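Why does this matter for the project? Reviewers at the last site visit asked to see concrete outputs rather than summary tables. In response, this paragraph embeds two records directly. Each consists of the residue sequence and, immediately after it, the corresponding structure tokens. Nothing has been edited or filtered.
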Amino acid sequence: MSNASGGASWDRETLPEGDEKKQAVREMFDAIAPRYDIVNRIMTFRLDVRWRRRTVRDLALPSGSTVLDLAAGTGDLCIDLRESGLTPISIDLSYGMLAADRSGAPRSQADILQLPVRDRSVDGSTCGFALRNLLELPAFFDELARVVRSGGRIALLDVGIPKNRAIRFGNNIYFGKVVPKIGALLSDGAAYRYLPKSVAYLPESDEMVAMLRAAGFSDATHNLLSGGLTQLLLATRD
């Protein structure tokens, strides 16, 4: 998909909305899938590994639990889930990401706002760095409430906005200026210009917690990791 100037649909000053956003996200992740993992490791200094392990730990489900990993990408979280004794199922909108998956988990290409899963049929769900790519967070939280059994757990990881002014200033420079250069060198420069800007899609933390509680996760909490570079939403299905 191209914009009016002939470039990629995600290479633009204004962020796409609605169906245009959904198509742009799918095609962008198809494009960056082959080198997605190596770029993540480099641009986060391998902190992404620590964040995912924290997500799985705080999911706090017993061994053998079935967990949907939504917007699973190349399967990093699925690997961590399996190593913790859980049974992951990978779901992603991008065929390119699923094709690059090396977790060995069962895979399905689907819109995670419309999951091909029966009501209350799984023990939990994870989602890594994808909340800002969704069209409607309340609809996503409702869908999580539909498929997760009572007492099941969810752990949703995404980028954050540090509250410390110095950390926030440095983070803005790094992700706004340095990350796009790394992306251009190793993968798709336009995609890695889009990704830092996409943080603007995320509501405030208290608003997301309120959405989760309204959906049926009354104990939802919000946690900042690494000084606020990332954020982790945790909750139990009522």
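We now turn to the second protein, recorded in exactly the same manner.
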Amino acid sequence: MIGAIAGDIIGSVYEFHRIKTKEFALFQPACQFTDDSVLTVAVAQAILTDGDYRAKALGFGRRYPSASYGSGFRKWLHIQDPKPYYSFGNGSAMRVSPVGFAFETADEVLREAARSAEFTHNHPEGIKGAQATALAVFLARTARDKDVIRQEISSRFEYDLGRTVDAIRPYYDFDETCQRTVPEAIIAFLESDSYEDAVKNAVSLGGDADTLACITGGIAEAFYGPVSPYVRQKVREILTPELWGITKSFCAKYCPGSCA
């Protein structure tokens, strides 16, 4: 989970100033957490407490109103009794990594990923993006085999994971859909040799950098193990005490050693 939040923070400065290179320092002075981190923590808090993803997203979203939400989600936050709005945006995938860490079977992961998406993103592609991301996290920490991850995600969700980062990069642009974010984020992980390399792959695509790196970062942490003390400390410094406290509690229960 810290890997996903760190990816969001690292990518935050490149969301609207996109780059096509891996030659950059992980953390810049302007790095900050965005809606990706806020809603990832909301999902984690739901798992730690009552399983009410919708209520936690509402609560955290309204407590952190300036976290650069998409227009659809921002409108949803300000409705008295908000309903799903048939979104297939990548917001369902960016917040789902805690599901992949917390549940112990693929069926549970797929069920909970759908639940974490459908209170806003009830379009089939929105649910699919959340499920693919959560299952990739789950397989990364259990199967620990990139060929298995590639095959399972490709066959189950019909994503083209046979491309390369170098082939995608020249033609890829900003895109907020699950369909053109989740496969690319998974490929960024599959082609990496470390957590840092995975996140740099994601940012270097030149797209929705914070969300790409958030999705990739969660999978990479599950596969490579806890992020470095430096990355963990930067996350702690940048998050609010509330967000860090919940992150730490979640990691203590589901990712032992990652918050040490």
